[in-house]
């Protein structure tokens, strides 16, 4: 099965810093990747996604980088704000056509003012 | 999100009791999912349904059953609750076309004593 790991379970940053959250995956058949943000007491929310035919995608203050060679992706958050404090999950999706995601354990991002 | 609602939001019950968690969605999505979340283990898939006549087991279906009463409703049952089913339960939906992104409900916190 899919093995999804995160390098840093907790990341503490100062407000205004840039944050980088990493995710490694094991299934080379994964062709679609989603990042979710989960704030305390809430369900996960979609942040950004990327397909395997891309190596970079940018959103509002967030950038996802994908390195298929080493099966690694990262989520970069620019000018991190206290409201960014949450658990971040990456979810690779296989190319089977069935919409079941495998979620990593998550990384807790703590932003201090 | 209000588009995906879960009831109850919190529930405390005793070992051996039958419990039903309900999920409703107004997004018109065909696909619905049930996950449980435990500290340090991320989100794990219990059951999923791609339409009203389709039910599939996920990673950890033992001890659970589901019912897809209509496109908008997907219920999760614990026939005889046990303490290690204490967890946060999330329902999610997906349109099944054009995107693999899943949209999560607010969660149900279940405690089995």
Give a concise summary.
Chain A has no helices and 10 strands. Chain A has strands at 4-5, 10-14, 19-25, 30-38, 45-51, 56-58, 62-67, 72-77, 86-94, 107-112.
Question: Descriptors for this entry?
Answer:
heterodimer, A: about 110 residues, 5-stranded mixed beta sheet, about 0% helix, B: about 110 residues, mainly beta, 7-stranded mixed beta sheet, 4-stranded antiparallel beta sheet
**What shape does the CA trace of chain B take?**
globular
What would you call the quaternary organization? heterodimer
Helical segment count of chain B:
0
Radius of gyration of chain A: 13 Å
Average pLDDT value of chain A?
86
Query: Which structural category do the helix and sheet elements of chain A fall into?
Result: mainly beta
Give the H and E element order of chain A: EEEEEEEEEE
Q: Supply Rg of chain B.
A: 13 Å
The biggest beta sheet of chain B is recorded as: 7 strands, mixed
Pattern of helices and strands of chain B = EEEEEEEEEEE
